[in-house]
Amino acid sequence: GAQRAGEGAIPEWTGGIPQHERTADNLYVHPFPDDKPEFVIDAKNMGQYAEHLMLGTATLLKRYPETYRLPVYQTRRTAFFPEEIYAATRKNAETATLSGTDAVKDASLGFPFPIPGSAAEVIWNHKMKYRGPTARRYNNQAIVLADGSFTISKLVEEVMFAYANIAAPGQASDNLLLMYRSRVIQPPKDAGQLILVHENTDAEMGGRRAWIYNPGVRRVRRVPDAGYDNPSTGTDGNQTNDQIDMFNGSLARYDWQLVGKKSVYIPYNSYNINDMSLKYTDIIGKGHINQELTRYELHRVWVIDATLRDNVRHQFGRRTFYVDEDSWTIVGVDCYDARGQLWKFQEGHLVIAYDVGTIGGVPELIYDFQSGRYFATAMVNEDKPNDFGVEFDEQYFSPQALKKSAIR
pLDDT digits over 295-340, tens only? Predict the structure, then answer.
């Protein structure tokens, strides 16, 4: 669904990174190790580039004028997906429909809406993109205080994708998007907590189902409301459940507007910050991450505005989403409070998993402009690399299996 042609500093898309394997120890090799920044955007020259900056980015440049800067590199349109996804996407363009904001129908395997006619369709492309058949992520999260001190929380996350699974293609009509399990490793007060989620493609047929095992009560129970702005486990309230993966879950509490496309400096090909030799003390700094480790490029994005509907609750009164056109991945979100003031900014540092043929934010950041704190999630530097080849049985993602795991 992206525009193949180039535009100014944005080159033509010619197929992305060629698919190849990781190293023997399962690490990604930087495909462009000799690249150097072409220029740097800082608080002094940001006016020259204002039309290409997300509001959250501009706010960080102004807030930390001495330390926050954007090293801008050559734009490389490296995103790609397997041929099966492209073929299915072409078919979906003729058949897929969206009822309201939360019921996708007649889509199979690929992106449902390559020619989106609404904002909600763009968001569903992000939610239903190909990510491989399964994944295990050793998720390290930093809760960073205003003085730069931080604590690490850890969890292991496991996913089996029902939709966009080439090995076992699912239909949107099957009403199952993915199955997710997580185990909290730390902090100690949450250690041993297990969460199970079945995410659906059609809220009209039941929506999300979730279960939790809490070691304190030693039983598995159904969670009636596991989405929206409920706090995410192990984040000390710095991340809402629907901010995981930049955005997930139901769209029903917002009115969605498709603003259009624009070219924006966004984090892309972020292999440097994911170097496994780095320590979290190398990455985490006061007020923001170490921007010397980042890489920004000019890419076209879809801009989406979401405004909270009357008579429903959410801590964010409005959100502006920036969605990479080549991958349908949300790369930035400006989050406003009920007064209309910019409160938080989400930023995903995109990396192409070239052995799989997908792209995602590693790490993802949430800057809080009111408290001066920020939250970093999806870091793997001091842990194991993400595993996209792990094998699961569907039964593993049942409430009964969750209970057995808790007992062990």
Answer: 999 999 999 999 999 999 999 999 999 999 999 999 999 999 999 9
- First and final C-alpha spacing in the chain: 46
Share of the chain above pLDDT 90, in %: 81
Residue 131 zone, left/alpha/beta (φ > 0; ψ -120 to 50; rest): alpha
Count how many residues are written for the chain.
408
**Residue 406 CB: number of other CB atoms within 10 A?**
17
Task: Note the pLDDT tens digit of each residue in 38-85.
Answer: 999 999 999 999 999 999 999 999 999 999 999 999 999 999 999 999
Evaluate the omega torsion of the peptide bond into residue 363 and state whether it is cis, within 30 degrees of 0: yes
Predicted TM-score (pTM) of the model is 0.96
At 237-248, the pLDDT tens digits run 999 999 999 999
Strand partners, 139: 155
Instruction: Spell out a b/e string for 373-401, using b for 16 or more CB atoms within 10 Å of the CB, else e.
Output: bbbbbbbbbbbebbebeeebeeebbebeb
DSSP string, 294-324: --EEEEEEEEEEEEEPTT---S-SEEEEEEE
% of the chain with per-residue pLDDT over 70? 97
Q: Which residue has the higher pLDDT, 177 or 226?
A: 177
Q: Are 391 and 190 in contact (CB under 8 A)?
A: no
CA distance 291 to 302: 25
Cβ neighbours around 339 below 10 Å, total: 7
Helix, strand, coil shares of the chain as percentages rounded to 5?
Answer: 15, 35, 50
Q: Which SS3 state, helix, strand or coil, does residue 60 take?
A: helix
- SS3 string of 246-287? CCCCCCCCEEEEEEEEEEEEEECCCCHHHCCCCCHHHHECCC
* Cα–Cα distance list, 135 to 142, 157, 385, 391 (Å): 22, 8, 11, 9
